[in-house]
Amino acid sequence: MFSKATELGLFKAAEIGKDKIRVSHLQFADDTIIMGASDNENAWTMKRVLCHMEALSGLKINFDKCSISGINVEDERLQEVANILGCRVGGIPFSYLGLKVGIDHRRISEWAEILHKIRNRLKRWDDKNISLGGRITLLNSVFTSPFSKRVFRAIFFF
Q: Which regions of the chain does DSSP assign to beta strands (E)?
């Protein structure tokens, strides 16, 4: 729906990179990031689209769990948009799908928290609880992950 609203000129999506590619949202399962201009018109369009999504899907959006963050946006402007949407003002960095957004992912130190979580989960597994085939499957999934180069670089230099 946000793509259609952007296409119709009702929603001003964020323009990313030197080619100014328009990105209005990122979505995985029930986690969504909506990106756009911070003006009132865009906020009201966002509110209408979200209300239509609620009506069409039968699902309820929990605005108490939602937050709005801005890049190069004044605090007063963020608060005004948050009031329109009925959500709180968040900060940067924030977490999306377990990863921090708004940090420098090239720095090894930024991966410490994620690596700590991975190590703790792996500690709970011992050789008795996972078969050889299970270990091979786990290793294959980790090695084919798009984040594997960064994570392994961080692991090896720790």
A: 14-16, 21-23, 25-28, 31-34, 67-68, 88-89, 94-96, 99-101
pTM exceeds 0.70, yes or no: no
Q: Give the residue carrying structure tokens 């108490």.
A: 64
In whole angstroms, how far apart are CA 17 and each of 22, 27, 29, 83, 94?
9, 20, 26, 30, 21
Look at residue 155 in the predicted model and tell me its pLDDT.
42
Neighbour count for residue 82 (Cβ, 10 Å):
20
CB contact set of 146 (below 8 Å; sequence gap of 6+): none
Cα gap 79→88, rounded to integer Å: 8
pLDDT digits (tens, 9 = 90+) for 61-117: 888 888 888 888 888 998 999 999 888 898 888 877 777 888 887 888 888 887 888
DSSP 70: -
Measured between alpha carbons, how far is 144 from 149 in angstroms, rounded to an integer?
Answer: 9
Task: Tell me which residue of 95, 90, 68 sits closest to 81, measured CA to CA.
Answer: 68
